[in-house]
């Protein structure tokens, strides 16, 4: 390990403890397409996935052509296809927050950024080393996470869209308990996109898996929107009417009314469907960019120690961070520092990071 000076700004020098050979990251947006090999020295992924157009080694850099196992013609064309299949997804307007499960080197999230969609890319650490390192080095929000026996650390109705492209998850095992976790995190009216072999291949075992997926999604009341090539898209219902109209004893059952879908710390996965708020909270969000400043109705359903109006607290936080970030930009010449990856250790309503985006 050694200390290196990152940058000198107005007499201040930022020092960082780094691995030997580490270079200053390539700045965004170039980092979407190339990163230094010495910063993420994991060549095995190139050997295993190079032929799939994921990643290549070019002199002293990794380059990312934007391809992937299912992105035959590149991630950008893949996103165009999704938009044409279901225009209502409306990247950057209706769809603002996405989750990419089993993200690989995060090309899906990287190319969604230019469509004004923030994607959280998650993947486990596997034989290809930690792919999350590639995502973060590229400047894409990412976390190491794995579907196992506990809920992922995100509240209910957190994502407008959830994506899985060859993510190697058996969604129908154990009575669909992993897809029920996706259902918990997906916003009412949100979309689930699955790009995988069972969607388009006709092998007997894969077709059986496709039938199981169709049956499970029907039983949890997802609308099958469209299938084209290797992509299948479903939509979660907007309310509980379908859940409540099912036959008595239908599986999977609704979760008990005392189940808190936002309780995630060390909470085991539940083999049940999360109820949606009766008042439509979560589904009735405004489109982006108005959504940045409009207090969501869902604030009323969040457990918090607040004596003031939640909407007033939301507006006050936005005003507070607007003033703070203006001072950061003015006093510290923030834009000259080329920040890309930022972690907010006390996020609150997310005002700091959202306004940081607005000041870019």
What does this 3D model show about the protein?
With 360 residues, the protein is of the alpha/beta class. 27% of the residues lie in helices and 18% in strands. The protein is built from ten helices and twelve strands. The strands form three sheets. Strands 8-7-6-9-10-12-11 form a seven-stranded mixed sheet, with helices on both faces. Strands 3-5-4 form a three-stranded antiparallel sheet, covered by helices on one side. The protein has a two-stranded antiparallel sheet with strand order 1-2. A hairpin with a 2-residue loop joins strand 11 and strand 12 (231-235). Helix 9 (310-331) packs across helix 10 (351-358). The longest helix has 22 residues, at 310-331. It is globular. It is a single-pass type II membrane protein. Pfam families: Methyltransf_29. This is Methyltransferase.
In a nutshell, what does this entry contain?
This is Methyltransferase. The chain has 360 residues and is of the alpha/beta class.
Helix content: 25-40%
The count of DSSP E runs of length 2 or more, i.e. the number of strands, is 12
- Structural class of the secondary structure composition? alpha/beta
- End-to-end span in angstroms? 32 Å
Shape: globular
Strand count, sense and barrel status of the largest sheet are: 7 strands, mixed
Fraction of residues in β-strands: 15-25%
The chain-level mean pLDDT equals 87
Helix segment tally: 10
Rg over CA atoms: 22 Å
Poorly predicted runs are 1-5
Enzyme class: transferase
Family: Belongs to the methyltransferase superfamily.
Main location: Golgi
Pfam family, one: Methyltransf_29
């Amino acid at each position: 390990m050694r200390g290196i000076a990152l940058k000198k700004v107005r007499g201040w020098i930022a020092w960082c403890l780094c691995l030997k050979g580490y270079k200053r990251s390539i700045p965004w947006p170039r980092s979407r397409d190339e990163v230094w090999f010495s910063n993420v020295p994991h060549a095995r992924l190139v050997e295993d996935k190079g032929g799939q157009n994921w990643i290549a080694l070019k002199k002293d850099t990794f380059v990312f052509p934007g391809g992937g196992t299912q992105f035959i013609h590149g991630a950008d064309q893949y996103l165009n296809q999704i938009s044409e299949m279901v225009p209502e997804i409306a990247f950057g307007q209706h769809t603002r927050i996405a989750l990419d499960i089993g993200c690989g080197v995060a090309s899906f999230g990287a190319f969604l950024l230019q469509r004004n969609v923030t994607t959280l890319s998650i993947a486990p650490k596997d034989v290809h080393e930690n792919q999350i390192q590639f995502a973060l080095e590229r400047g894409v929000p990412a976390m190491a996470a794995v579907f196992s026996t506990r809920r992922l650390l995100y509240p209910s109705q957190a994502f407008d869209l959830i994506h899985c492209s060859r993510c190697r998850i058996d969604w129908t095992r154990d009575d669909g308990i992993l897809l029920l976790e996706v259902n918990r995190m997906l916003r009412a009216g949100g979309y689930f996109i699955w790009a995988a072999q069972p969607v388009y291949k006709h092998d007997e075992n894969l077709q059986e898996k496709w039938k199981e997926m169709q049956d499970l999604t029907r039983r949890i009341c997802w609308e099958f929107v469209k299938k084209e090539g290797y992509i299948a898209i479903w939509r979660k219902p907007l309310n509980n009417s379908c859940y409540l109209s099912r036959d008595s004893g239908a599986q999977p059952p609704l979760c008990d009314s005392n189940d808190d879908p936002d309780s995630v710390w060390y909470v085991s996965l539940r083999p049940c469907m999360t109820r949606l708020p009766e008042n439509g909270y979560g589904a009735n969000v405004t489109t982006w960019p108005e959504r940045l400043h409009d207090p969501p109705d869902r604030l009323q359903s969040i457990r918090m120690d607040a004596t003031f109006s939640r909407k007033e607290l939301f507006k006050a936080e936005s005003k507070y961070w607007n003033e703070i970030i203006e001072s950061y930009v003015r006093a510290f010449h923030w834009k000259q520092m080329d920040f890309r990856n930022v972690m907010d250790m006390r996020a609150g309503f997310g005002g700091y990071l959202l306004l940081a985006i607005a000041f870019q």
